[in-house]
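Hi R.,

Here's the chain you asked about this morning:
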Amino acid sequence: MSKMLVMGLDIGSASSKCIIMGDGQNIVAQSVVPSGTGTSGPGRAVDSALGSAGVGIDAMSYIIATGYGRNTYAPANDTVSELSCHAKGAAWILPGVRTVIDIGGQDAKALSLGETGTLSNFVMNDKCAAGTGRFLDVMARVLELDVGDLARLDEEAESAAQISSTCAVFAESEVISKLAGNTPIPELVAGIHKSAAARAAGLIKRVGVAAPLLMTGGVANNAGVVRALESSLAVGIATSPYSQSAGAIGAALFALERIIG
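And here is the predicted structure, written out as tokens:
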């Protein structure tokens, strides 16, 4: 066990991610709880990570919170913006990364990073659910599926149904109409992924497509969306088992800097 431990807590709108990091920037424990700000999610994420590390909260030398609910976690020593944390976490996950697309529960953002991994530009979509994790949740419910089944069904599609609406509400109506017309479920799923990817691609193009690219956020776990985005941009996109925890990793790295400089 490292002698010095720090914690990064990313409290999002839909999930809470906690990272405990030790000397040398090694991850000691991580947790992801599918409940975000305003719920018990942040506390449960912290408890889970502490349990995995086998320590108590008093073992943390420094705690930084980030994300939508960063100001709601009282034990944090400080807060840092989610944009800065996502940039720092992404650079740790994929050294040399130049473009990051983060698709979370209720927003999506594209980040442009400089050669040293610092944030140089960004654009966000936080006004519309289209292209976010919420959009996929709604579409899965319409199709009477678990959102975790979407990537598998995407692989079965022979083609992608055309989902032309850019508004989540209208897209839902469009999917219902196509369901009534007996469009195969896999083709609908592929069309939904293509629609979500088109929104993300638009954000990336606004900051500039520079390789290498990394996808973060919970939607990075959906291989169907990743493939659709790669096709839309005609460029490879990296993902990582740590993709959903990029913000928490960045927060933990900032916490380490507060201690060791």
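One quick note: Residues 93 and 240 are 7 Å apart (CA to CA).

Cheers,
M.
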